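hey m, so remember when u said the tokens were messed up on ur end? i reran from scratch. heres the input so u can diff it against urs
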Amino acid sequence: MNTWYSKSLGEGTVVYRRLRALNELRHQVCPDAASPYSLYMDAVSAETIVLFHPDQIVLATAFGALPCAQPQINGVRMIDLEYRPLPVTLQSAQVFSTSPTRAQPGAFTQRSGLAVAH
């Protein structure tokens, strides 16, 4: 029996902050994994759920995900958001190696030609 792992990222804008933390962790723990997790929407609770395949136990536990049975993704209750993390590249490694908490609130940094507010 394969043990999957899942964790709620919450609802609304908090999801983006938690997803960034997950991507930073992913760059440290498993940079060579092509798609170490997937995102789903629970249509009943409106939560965004991150799901880790059994092969990604190290990243899952480092992120605080809990063991679960293989989910039933049926497009009714659990909807695949079809989000897959970008491959790790030199550019993405630079983005995720700089913590947004290091910048002053309201400051902007230039990343990949985009101004990012902190």
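this time it looks ok to me. Residues 4-87 form one domain. if urs says something different then somethings off w ur setup not the seq
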